[in-house]
Amino acid sequence: MDRQNRLVIGTRGSKLALWQANHMADRLRALHRDLTVELLIIKTSGDRIQDRALSEIGGKGLFVKEIEEALLDGRIDLAVHSMKDVPATLPEGLHLSVMPERASAYDALLSSDGLTLETLPQGAAVGTGSLRRQFQLLAARPDLRILPIRGNVDTRIQKLRSREDGLSAIILAVSGLTRLGWAGEIVQELAPPTLVPAIGQGALGLETRIGDRVVDQRLDGLRHRPTEICVHAERGVLERLDGDCHLPIACHGVLDGDELVLSARLGSADGSRMVEDTLRCSTENPRGAGLRLAERLLENGAAELLEELAHSPS
């Protein structure tokens, strides 16, 4: 088949990843009636290692590494990623071609008894695999017992329902729950200032080879410029502070008229220390805005906090 009329999307095999890849495939078919779109499922290191926290094994970049290798060697034409899994620095030869419109960036609390963050009993066990969620939850409720939890959305909900390890609640992304039909399980949305989202949360990114104009032109109709502005700004913070996705960095950008409002937060694992700041600026240089905000955080105590986190046991 003529390459111009065929695209192969690389994706993880989880239900959520497949939903996202199929959603993008359907949108591409609707835009280009002559186009055949196929999926290639690729198992990543992050999928294979389920018995340890992401912060112990190298961060969320492990969910994209093998997919990017397939992109570089030509087995696939594009990758559909959850942007919160994508490190700040991409492999040489690849770029984020397009970001479609973002879903909700917020986190959600699910509990068996319909309890909210405020009404959970003293010392309740809350499950999350995210250090970002952990430090913010403990900042709000220092009495909580945070339990590490891995696995796909269905697995985590089942662990909550069976009260594994005494779980009273779990925290998941609103976007993933909505995409998989679990929105009815949400007891409480945890929006800022309670929980600032992960960088890129709720957004999808379509990664391609630099210079592959045939593919990039096919994708252009999916572009949502407001999403790209906000996510590139958030990733500017990630680039300056960390470069990967495993440290407890929270950041969220929103547009207010013709201005970008970018908020970021970094904290110690136990929630006892937090550095945060907000920047309001033009939308002309999103990455630069993120880099500027990160510098302000570093000047106000984030440098010392990052140093401590780097040398603390996982």
Structural features, described:
This protein has helices spanning 15-31, 45-48, 54-57, 65-72, 131-140, 153-161, 174-179, 213-219, 225-241, 286-311, and strands at residues 6-11, 36-41, 78-82, 94-98, 107-111, 125-127, 145-147, 167-173, 188-190, 204-209, 249-256, 259-267, 274-282. With 314 residues, it is α/β, with parallel strands linked by helices. It has 3 domains: 1-100 and 203-223, D-Maltodextrin-Binding Protein, domain 2; 107-190, Periplasmic binding protein-like II (D-Maltodextrin-Binding Protein, domain 2, 3-Layer(aba) Sandwich), CATH 3.40.190; 224-314, Porphobilinogen deaminase, C-terminal domain (Double Stranded RNA Binding Domain, 2-Layer Sandwich). The strands form 3 sheets. The chain has a 5-stranded mixed beta sheet, sandwiched between helices. Strands 7-6-8-5-9 form a 5-stranded mixed beta sheet, sandwiched between helices. Strands 11-12-13 form a 3-stranded antiparallel beta sheet. Helix 1 (15-31) links the parallel strand 1 and strand 2. The longest helix is centred in the C-terminal third of the chain and has 26 residues, at 286-311. It is globular and about 60 Å long.
Strand content: 15-25%
- Topology as a string of helices (H) and strands (E): EHEHHHEEEEHEHEHEEHHEEEH
Mean pLDDT: 92
CATH top level class name of the largest domain: Alpha Beta
Form type: globular
Number of distinct helices: 10
Cα Rg: 19 Å
What order do the strands of the largest sheet run in, or round the barrel if closed?
A: 2-1-3-10-4
What is the number of domains? 3
Class derived from helix and strand content: alpha/beta
What's the count of strands?
Answer: 13
Helix content: 25-40%
